[in-house]
Protein backbone atom coordinates (compact mmCIF):
# COMPACT_ATOMS: atom_id res chain seq x y z
CA UNK A 1 0.00 0.00 0.00
CA UNK A 2 1.38 3.46 -0.87
CA UNK A 3 1.73 5.56 2.25
CA UNK A 4 -0.65 8.53 2.15
CA UNK A 5 1.00 11.87 1.44
CA UNK A 6 0.99 13.99 4.55
CA UNK A 7 0.70 17.74 4.45
CA UNK A 8 3.75 19.12 6.32
CA UNK A 9 1.60 20.80 8.97
CA UNK A 10 -0.10 17.48 9.83
CA UNK A 11 3.26 15.85 10.42
CA UNK A 12 4.48 18.82 12.44
CA UNK A 13 1.47 18.58 14.75
CA UNK A 14 2.56 15.06 15.68
CA UNK A 15 6.31 15.64 15.57
CA UNK A 16 6.56 18.71 17.74
CA UNK A 17 4.63 17.91 20.87
CA UNK A 18 5.21 20.18 23.83
CA UNK A 19 5.49 18.20 27.05
CA UNK A 20 4.51 21.13 29.25
CA UNK A 21 1.33 21.60 27.22
CA UNK A 22 0.53 17.88 27.35
CA UNK A 23 0.90 17.88 31.13
CA UNK A 24 -2.23 19.95 31.74
CA UNK A 25 -4.24 19.14 34.83
CA UNK A 26 -7.11 17.59 32.84
CA UNK A 27 -4.88 14.85 31.45
CA UNK A 28 -4.93 11.64 33.49
CA UNK A 29 -2.13 10.22 31.37
CA UNK A 30 0.27 13.10 31.99
CA UNK A 31 -0.54 13.86 35.63
CA UNK A 32 -0.77 10.42 37.24
CA UNK A 33 2.99 10.28 37.78
CA UNK A 34 5.73 12.80 38.60
CA UNK A 35 6.55 15.77 36.36
CA UNK A 36 9.74 14.13 35.08
CA UNK A 37 8.00 10.90 34.07
CA UNK A 38 7.19 10.06 30.43
CA UNK A 39 3.72 8.47 30.53
CA UNK A 40 3.37 5.50 28.20
CA UNK A 41 0.57 3.73 29.97
CA UNK A 42 -3.14 4.54 29.43
CA UNK A 43 -4.41 4.30 25.84
CA UNK A 44 -4.60 7.96 24.84
CA UNK A 45 -2.52 9.34 21.99
CA UNK A 46 -0.53 12.52 22.62
CA UNK A 47 -1.61 13.99 19.26
CA UNK A 48 -4.04 16.89 19.00
CA UNK A 49 -7.60 16.13 17.89
CA UNK A 50 -8.34 16.42 14.14
CA UNK A 51 -9.06 20.05 13.17
CA UNK A 52 -12.31 19.02 11.41
CA UNK A 53 -13.57 17.46 14.65
CA UNK A 54 -12.65 20.51 16.69
CA UNK A 55 -14.48 22.76 14.21
CA UNK A 56 -17.60 20.59 14.42
CA UNK A 57 -17.49 20.68 18.22
CA UNK A 58 -17.19 24.47 18.27
CA UNK A 59 -20.16 24.67 15.90
CA UNK A 60 -22.18 22.36 18.15
CA UNK A 61 -21.58 24.59 21.16
CA UNK A 62 -23.11 27.50 19.27
CA UNK A 63 -26.32 25.48 18.85
CA UNK A 64 -26.88 24.98 22.58
CA UNK A 65 -26.61 21.86 24.68
CA UNK A 66 -30.15 20.64 25.18
CA UNK A 67 -31.13 16.99 24.71
CA UNK A 68 -29.97 15.73 21.33
CA UNK A 69 -31.60 12.98 19.24
CA UNK A 70 -31.70 10.48 22.09
CA UNK A 71 -33.66 7.88 20.13
CA UNK A 72 -30.69 7.48 17.79
CA UNK A 73 -29.13 10.35 15.90
CA UNK A 74 -30.18 9.74 12.26
CA UNK A 75 -27.07 11.30 10.70
CA UNK A 76 -24.73 9.29 12.89
CA UNK A 77 -26.71 6.10 12.28
CA UNK A 78 -26.50 6.56 8.50
CA UNK A 79 -22.76 7.22 8.66
CA UNK A 80 -22.22 4.25 10.94
CA UNK A 81 -24.17 1.90 8.72
CA UNK A 82 -22.02 2.88 5.75
CA UNK A 83 -18.85 2.44 7.76
CA UNK A 84 -19.88 -0.91 9.24
CA UNK A 85 -20.77 -2.23 5.78
CA UNK A 86 -17.07 -1.86 4.86
CA UNK A 87 -16.29 -4.29 7.71
CA UNK A 88 -18.80 -6.83 6.41
CA UNK A 89 -21.66 -5.75 8.69
CA UNK A 90 -24.27 -4.96 6.05
CA UNK A 91 -28.07 -5.44 6.16
CA UNK A 92 -28.45 -4.40 9.78
CA UNK A 93 -32.08 -4.38 10.84
CA UNK A 94 -33.97 -1.47 12.36
CA UNK A 95 -32.81 -1.38 15.99
CA UNK A 96 -29.58 -3.14 15.06
CA UNK A 97 -27.43 -0.24 16.26
CA UNK A 98 -27.67 1.49 19.61
CA UNK A 99 -25.43 4.19 20.95
CA UNK A 100 -23.78 3.78 24.33
CA UNK A 101 -21.80 6.14 26.56
CA UNK A 102 -18.73 3.97 25.87
CA UNK A 103 -17.63 0.51 24.83
CA UNK A 104 -17.00 -0.74 28.38
CA UNK A 105 -20.68 -0.32 29.38
CA UNK A 106 -21.45 -2.54 26.37
CA UNK A 107 -19.14 -5.24 27.70
CA UNK A 108 -20.63 -5.08 31.21
CA UNK A 109 -24.26 -5.05 30.07
CA UNK A 110 -23.65 -7.98 27.71
CA UNK A 111 -22.23 -10.06 30.53
CA UNK A 112 -25.19 -9.07 32.74
CA UNK A 113 -27.79 -9.89 30.09
CA UNK A 114 -26.38 -13.01 28.50
CA UNK A 115 -25.17 -14.92 31.57
CA UNK A 116 -26.25 -15.58 35.14
CA UNK A 117 -24.26 -15.29 38.38
CA UNK A 118 -21.93 -18.28 38.67
CA UNK A 119 -21.77 -18.86 34.88
CA UNK A 120 -18.45 -19.10 33.14
CA UNK A 121 -17.58 -16.53 30.51
CA UNK A 122 -14.90 -17.34 27.97
CA UNK A 123 -12.12 -15.01 26.94
CA UNK A 124 -8.50 -15.15 25.90
CA UNK A 125 -5.73 -13.89 28.13
CA UNK A 126 -3.93 -11.50 28.33
CA UNK A 127 -6.71 -9.11 27.40
CA UNK A 128 -7.94 -5.55 28.01
CA UNK A 129 -8.74 -5.67 31.72
CA UNK A 130 -12.47 -4.75 31.70
CA UNK A 131 -13.01 -8.07 29.91
CA UNK A 132 -12.20 -10.09 33.02
CA UNK A 133 -13.30 -7.39 35.48
CA UNK A 134 -16.79 -7.31 33.91
CA UNK A 135 -17.01 -11.07 34.53
CA UNK A 136 -15.67 -11.31 38.08
CA UNK A 137 -17.19 -7.99 39.12
CA UNK A 138 -20.66 -9.33 38.29
CA UNK A 139 -20.29 -12.64 40.09
CA UNK A 140 -19.42 -14.73 37.03
CA UNK A 141 -16.34 -16.89 36.55
CA UNK A 142 -13.63 -16.26 34.00
CA UNK A 143 -12.86 -19.18 31.72
CA UNK A 144 -9.62 -17.85 30.26
CA UNK A 145 -7.53 -19.49 27.59
CA UNK A 146 -3.96 -18.27 27.25
CA UNK A 147 -2.78 -16.99 23.89
CA UNK A 148 0.26 -18.90 22.68
CA UNK A 149 3.45 -16.93 22.20
CA UNK A 150 4.93 -18.59 19.08
CA UNK A 151 7.83 -17.66 16.79
CA UNK A 152 5.24 -16.18 14.40
CA UNK A 153 3.46 -14.11 17.03
CA UNK A 154 0.53 -14.70 19.37
CA UNK A 155 -1.75 -17.51 18.29
CA UNK A 156 -5.02 -18.95 19.57
CA UNK A 157 -4.84 -22.13 21.62
CA UNK A 158 -7.54 -23.98 19.72
CA UNK A 159 -7.55 -27.06 21.93
CA UNK A 160 -7.82 -24.93 25.06
CA UNK A 161 -10.62 -22.90 23.54
CA UNK A 162 -12.51 -25.98 22.40
CA UNK A 163 -12.34 -27.50 25.88
CA UNK A 164 -13.44 -24.29 27.60
CA UNK A 165 -16.21 -23.58 25.10
CA UNK A 166 -18.10 -26.64 26.25
CA UNK A 167 -18.81 -24.97 29.61
CA UNK A 168 -19.89 -21.49 28.64
CA UNK A 169 -22.51 -19.55 26.69
CA UNK A 170 -20.56 -16.38 26.00
CA UNK A 171 -17.22 -15.52 24.39
CA UNK A 172 -15.72 -12.05 24.83
CA UNK A 173 -13.49 -11.45 21.81
CA UNK A 174 -11.07 -8.57 21.35
CA UNK A 175 -10.49 -7.93 17.62
CA UNK A 176 -8.01 -6.36 17.04
CA UNK A 177 -6.59 -7.69 20.23
CA UNK A 178 -5.41 -5.44 23.04
CA UNK A 179 -2.64 -5.93 24.27
CA UNK A 180 -0.98 -8.24 21.72
CA UNK A 181 -1.90 -6.10 18.71
CA UNK A 182 -3.10 -9.08 16.70
CA UNK A 183 -5.68 -8.57 13.96
CA UNK A 184 -7.31 -11.97 13.66
CA UNK A 185 -7.01 -13.27 10.11
CA UNK A 186 -9.86 -14.54 7.96
CA UNK A 187 -8.71 -18.11 8.62
CA UNK A 188 -8.62 -17.57 12.37
CA UNK A 189 -12.03 -15.86 12.30
CA UNK A 190 -13.47 -18.76 10.29
CA UNK A 191 -12.15 -21.28 12.80
CA UNK A 192 -13.54 -19.21 15.66
CA UNK A 193 -16.91 -19.02 13.91
CA UNK A 194 -16.94 -22.80 13.47
CA UNK A 195 -16.33 -23.18 17.19
CA UNK A 196 -18.97 -20.62 18.12
CA UNK A 197 -21.59 -22.29 15.93
CA UNK A 198 -20.65 -25.77 17.20
CA UNK A 199 -21.09 -24.68 20.81
CA UNK A 200 -23.90 -22.20 20.15
CA UNK A 201 -22.12 -19.37 21.96
CA UNK A 202 -23.00 -15.73 22.07
CA UNK A 203 -20.06 -13.53 21.09
CA UNK A 204 -19.29 -9.98 22.08
CA UNK A 205 -16.68 -8.73 19.64
CA UNK A 206 -14.95 -5.56 20.80
CA UNK A 207 -13.66 -3.99 17.57
CA UNK A 208 -12.71 -0.61 19.00
CA UNK A 209 -9.17 -0.67 17.56
CA UNK A 210 -10.23 -1.70 14.04
CA UNK A 211 -9.24 1.58 12.38
CA UNK A 212 -5.69 1.53 13.72
CA UNK A 213 -4.33 -1.28 11.58
CA UNK A 214 -0.89 -1.57 10.02
CA UNK A 215 -1.94 -4.52 7.85
CA UNK A 216 -3.12 -3.96 4.30
CA UNK A 217 -6.14 -6.28 4.25
CA UNK A 218 -9.55 -4.67 4.77
CA UNK A 219 -10.91 -5.16 8.26
CA UNK A 220 -13.22 -8.15 8.67
CA UNK A 221 -15.69 -8.03 11.54
CA UNK A 222 -16.29 -11.25 13.41
CA UNK A 223 -19.99 -11.00 12.47
CA UNK A 224 -19.22 -10.51 8.77
CA UNK A 225 -20.24 -14.13 8.23
CA UNK A 226 -24.03 -14.77 8.26
CA UNK A 227 -23.47 -17.98 10.25
CA UNK A 228 -22.69 -16.01 13.40
CA UNK A 229 -24.70 -12.85 12.84
CA UNK A 230 -27.56 -13.82 15.11
CA UNK A 231 -25.14 -14.75 17.90
CA UNK A 232 -22.88 -11.71 17.84
CA UNK A 233 -22.89 -8.24 19.31
CA UNK A 234 -20.17 -6.00 17.93
CA UNK A 235 -18.88 -3.08 19.97
CA UNK A 236 -17.16 -0.10 18.45
CA UNK A 237 -16.50 3.58 18.97
CA UNK A 238 -14.33 6.47 17.76
CA UNK A 239 -12.17 7.01 20.83
CA UNK A 240 -9.05 5.01 19.94
CA UNK A 241 -8.80 6.06 16.28
CA UNK A 242 -9.63 9.72 16.89
CA UNK A 243 -8.19 10.18 20.37
CA UNK A 244 -11.41 11.31 21.97
CA UNK A 245 -11.75 9.05 25.02
CA UNK A 246 -12.72 11.99 27.23
CA UNK A 247 -15.98 12.41 25.31
CA UNK A 248 -17.25 8.86 25.82
CA UNK A 249 -19.39 7.21 23.14
CA UNK A 250 -19.71 3.77 21.62
CA UNK A 251 -22.14 1.58 19.75
CA UNK A 252 -23.52 -1.91 20.07
CA UNK A 253 -24.37 -3.56 16.78
CA UNK A 254 -26.31 -6.75 16.19
CA UNK A 255 -28.16 -8.42 13.37
CA UNK A 256 -30.67 -9.68 15.93
CA UNK A 257 -32.37 -6.48 17.10
CA UNK A 258 -34.10 -8.38 19.92
CA UNK A 259 -30.72 -9.40 21.32
CA UNK A 260 -29.50 -5.80 21.21
CA UNK A 261 -32.68 -4.71 22.98
CA UNK A 262 -32.28 -7.38 25.63
CA UNK A 263 -28.75 -6.29 26.45
CA UNK A 264 -29.71 -2.62 26.53
CA UNK A 265 -32.60 -3.45 28.84
CA UNK A 266 -30.29 -5.29 31.25
CA UNK A 267 -28.51 -2.02 31.97
CA UNK A 268 -31.78 -0.09 32.14
CA UNK A 269 -31.52 3.46 33.40
CA UNK A 270 -28.08 2.76 34.84
CA UNK A 271 -26.49 3.09 31.43
CA UNK A 272 -27.12 6.80 30.92
CA UNK A 273 -26.94 8.32 27.46
CA UNK A 274 -24.15 9.43 25.20
CA UNK A 275 -23.48 13.17 25.29
CA UNK A 276 -24.47 15.63 22.56
CA UNK A 277 -20.84 16.59 21.99
CA UNK A 278 -19.79 12.97 21.59
CA UNK A 279 -22.41 12.49 18.86
CA UNK A 280 -21.15 15.55 17.00
CA UNK A 281 -17.57 14.35 17.40
CA UNK A 282 -18.33 10.90 15.96
CA UNK A 283 -20.31 12.38 13.06
CA UNK A 284 -17.38 14.66 12.22
CA UNK A 285 -14.90 11.79 12.52
CA UNK A 286 -16.89 9.65 10.09
CA UNK A 287 -17.61 12.53 7.72
CA UNK A 288 -14.22 14.17 7.35
CA UNK A 289 -11.75 12.41 9.65
CA UNK A 290 -10.39 9.96 7.04
CA UNK A 291 -7.29 11.92 5.93
CA UNK A 292 -6.34 12.75 9.54
CA UNK A 293 -6.74 9.08 10.46
CA UNK A 294 -4.61 7.94 7.51
CA UNK A 295 -1.85 10.35 8.59
CA UNK A 296 -2.10 9.14 12.18
CA UNK A 297 -1.90 5.48 11.20
CA UNK A 298 1.13 6.24 9.00
CA UNK A 299 2.82 8.06 11.91
CA UNK A 300 2.01 5.23 14.33
CA UNK A 301 3.28 2.63 11.90
CA UNK A 302 6.57 4.53 11.61
CA UNK A 303 6.73 4.72 15.42
CA UNK A 304 6.10 1.00 15.63
CA UNK A 305 8.95 0.37 13.19
CA UNK A 306 11.24 2.76 15.06
CA UNK A 307 10.45 0.99 18.34
CA UNK A 308 11.07 -2.40 16.72
CA UNK A 309 14.43 -1.30 15.31
CA UNK A 310 15.49 0.33 18.57
CA UNK A 311 14.66 -2.69 20.70
CA UNK A 312 16.32 -5.12 18.30
CA UNK A 313 19.49 -3.03 18.27
CA UNK A 314 19.79 -1.86 21.85
CA UNK A 315 17.69 -4.23 23.95
CA UNK A 316 17.94 -7.46 21.96
CA UNK A 317 16.96 -9.62 24.92
CA UNK A 318 13.46 -8.08 25.07
CA UNK A 319 10.99 -10.50 23.46
CA UNK A 320 8.13 -9.03 21.45
CA UNK A 321 6.18 -9.30 18.22
CA UNK A 322 5.69 -6.05 16.29
CA UNK A 323 2.00 -5.19 16.59
CA UNK A 324 -0.32 -5.42 13.58
CA UNK A 325 -2.64 -2.80 15.04
CA UNK A 326 -2.99 -0.32 17.89
CA UNK A 327 -0.25 1.78 19.41
CA UNK A 328 0.30 -0.55 22.35
CA UNK A 329 3.43 -2.68 22.33
CA UNK A 330 3.40 -5.82 24.47
CA UNK A 331 6.95 -6.43 25.64
CA UNK A 332 8.35 -9.41 27.51
CA UNK A 333 11.08 -8.36 29.96
CA UNK A 334 11.03 -11.56 31.97
CA UNK A 335 14.72 -12.18 31.32
CA UNK A 336 15.56 -9.14 33.48
CA UNK A 337 16.46 -9.60 37.17
CA UNK A 338 13.86 -6.95 38.09
CA UNK A 339 11.08 -8.72 36.19
CA UNK A 340 9.15 -9.36 39.41
CA UNK A 341 8.82 -5.64 40.01
CA UNK A 342 9.17 -4.31 36.49
CA UNK A 343 6.56 -1.55 36.39
CA UNK A 344 7.92 0.05 39.59
CA UNK A 345 11.50 -0.47 38.50
CA UNK A 346 10.91 1.38 35.21
CA UNK A 347 9.04 4.14 36.97
CA UNK A 348 11.79 4.62 39.54
CA UNK A 349 14.87 4.00 37.42
CA UNK A 350 13.82 5.12 33.94
CA UNK A 351 11.12 7.62 34.87
CA UNK A 352 8.85 5.97 32.28
CA UNK A 353 5.33 4.88 33.26
CA UNK A 354 4.06 1.73 31.55
CA UNK A 355 1.16 -0.62 32.21
CA UNK A 356 2.11 -3.70 34.20
CA UNK A 357 1.42 -7.03 32.46
CA UNK A 358 -0.67 -8.57 35.25
CA UNK A 359 -3.29 -5.81 34.77
CA UNK A 360 -4.32 -7.66 31.63
CA UNK A 361 -4.80 -11.10 33.15
CA UNK A 362 -7.44 -12.60 35.41
CA UNK A 363 -6.21 -13.53 38.89
CA UNK A 364 -4.99 -17.05 38.16
CA UNK A 365 -3.01 -15.91 35.13
CA UNK A 366 -1.32 -12.85 36.64
CA UNK A 367 1.93 -14.63 37.63
CA UNK A 368 2.34 -15.82 34.04
CA UNK A 369 2.53 -12.23 32.71
CA UNK A 370 4.59 -10.72 35.51
CA UNK A 371 7.57 -9.14 33.77
CA UNK A 372 5.61 -8.14 30.67
CA UNK A 373 4.64 -4.53 30.05
CA UNK A 374 2.29 -2.65 27.73
CA UNK A 375 3.93 0.42 26.28
CA UNK A 376 1.95 3.15 24.51
CA UNK A 377 3.96 4.54 21.59
CA UNK A 378 1.38 7.09 20.35
CA UNK A 379 3.57 10.10 20.89
CA UNK A 380 6.11 12.17 18.96
CA UNK A 381 9.21 10.41 17.68
CA UNK A 382 11.26 12.65 19.95
CA UNK A 383 9.40 11.66 23.13
CA UNK A 384 9.41 8.01 22.07
CA UNK A 385 13.15 8.09 21.51
CA UNK A 386 13.73 9.78 24.87
CA UNK A 387 11.65 7.08 26.58
CA UNK A 388 13.50 4.28 24.81
CA UNK A 389 16.86 5.76 25.76
CA UNK A 390 15.71 5.93 29.37
CA UNK A 391 14.59 2.29 29.23
CA UNK A 392 17.90 1.26 27.71
CA UNK A 393 19.88 3.07 30.40
CA UNK A 394 17.79 1.51 33.18
CA UNK A 395 17.57 -2.01 31.79
CA UNK A 396 20.95 -2.53 30.15
CA UNK A 397 21.74 -4.06 26.79
CA UNK A 398 21.99 -7.48 28.34
CA UNK A 399 19.25 -8.76 30.58
CA UNK A 400 21.57 -9.38 33.50
CA UNK A 401 23.51 -6.13 33.14
C1 LIG B 1 -10.36 -3.11 23.58
C2 LIG B 1 -10.89 -1.89 24.29
N1 LIG B 1 -12.21 -1.80 24.54
C3 LIG B 1 -12.73 -0.72 25.18
C4 LIG B 1 -11.92 0.33 25.59
C5 LIG B 1 -12.52 1.51 26.29
O1 LIG B 1 -13.62 1.97 25.59
P1 LIG B 1 -14.53 3.14 26.21
O2 LIG B 1 -13.61 4.19 26.71
O3 LIG B 1 -15.35 3.57 25.03
O4 LIG B 1 -15.37 2.52 27.26
C6 LIG B 1 -10.53 0.26 25.35
C7 LIG B 1 -9.65 1.34 25.81
O5 LIG B 1 -8.46 1.33 25.66
C8 LIG B 1 -10.01 -0.87 24.68
O6 LIG B 1 -8.70 -0.99 24.43
Folded structure, characterized:
Belongs to the class-II pyridoxal-phosphate-dependent aminotransferase family. MalY/PatB cystathionine beta-lyase subfamily. Pfam families: Aminotran_1_2. The chain has 401 residues and is an alpha/beta fold. It has helices at 8-15, 19-22, 28-31, 51-62, 74-85, 103-114, 130-136, 158-165, 186-199, 226-229, 239-242, 257-267, 276-288, 290-314, 342-350, 381-395, and strands at 38-39, 97-100, 120-125, 141-146, 148-150, 153-155, 170-174, 202-206, 232-236, 250-254, 328-332, 352-353, 355-356, 372-376. The strands form 4 sheets. The protein has a 7-stranded mixed beta sheet, sandwiched between helices. The radius of gyration is 21 Å and the shape is globular. Residues 43, 102-104, 128, 174, 178, 206, 208, 237, 239, 245, 250 line the site of pyridoxal-5'-phosphate.
Give structural attributes.
401 residues, alpha/beta, Aspartate Aminotransferase, domain 1, Aspartate Aminotransferase, domain 2, 7-stranded mixed sheet, 14 strands, 40% helix, globular, binds pyridoxal-5'-phosphate
